[in-house]
């Protein structure tokens, strides 16, 4: 069994298609207006239509209103939402699709906070990210040893933050997560994916056999 890969912050159709072809399991479409990877609804809907039958398309939101999230889920055909802001546990349901709650990890207290989302509402997994100043997508990692106990504890964990083709295999070995996620580590500029880097990332991540 190999790790699942989510490529986040795709903004171009050609990058979406290339990511699926490279073996990505999920794409993230960004709806945070302050992100350089922000998408309007028509663009996001077009990107979501590239989804293969078993693929997942997540909408990434930061402190958005429930109505706004529901509207974009419906209009874009999203299959999951990623709440990447300061959303409390009670905000993690009511969208009609599974929720991945993202948490920024800087110390053990953040791991303890992450645990408070386990089994809550529609939370189907946790995405553990570094503490980027702009909430996410900043290439900031964290100490993987902090979360070694979380992966394998029943809740699917995605590890993110500062991952790139050269370190993702090490991250998978260290944390044995359900999935890994990358935005800036496979880009030539914010929102512009480097297709060779995407391929190298997926290849390196999936080279680790999690059965062993
Ligand atoms: O990517 C963004 O611009 C972004 C902005 C605000 C909130 C979340 C954002 N991205 C979410 C992701 O899932 C990123 O892939 C994750 O933060 C890791 O990013 P990176 O360290 O650049 O790989």
From TrEMBL:
Pathway: Amino-acid biosynthesis; L-tryptophan biosynthesis; L-tryptophan from chorismate: step 3/5. SUPFAM superfamilies: Ribulose-phoshate binding barrel. This is N-(5'-phosphoribosyl)anthranilate isomerase. One of its GO terms (biological process) is L-tryptophan biosynthetic process. Belongs to the TrpF family. One of its GO terms (molecular function) is phosphoribosylanthranilate isomerase activity. Its EC number is 5.3.1.24. It holds the Pfam family PRAI. CDD domains: PRAI. Keywords: Amino-acid biosynthesis, Aromatic amino acid biosynthesis, Isomerase, Tryptophan biosynthesis. InterPro entries: Aldolase_TIM, PRAI_dom, RibuloseP-bd_barrel, TrpF_fam. The gene is trpF. It catalyses: N-(5-phospho-beta-D-ribosyl)anthranilate = 1-(2-carboxyphenylamino)-1-deoxy-D-ribulose 5-phosphate. It comes from Pseudomyxococcus hansupus. Residues 5-203 form the N-(5'phosphoribosyl) anthranilate isomerase (PRAI) domain.
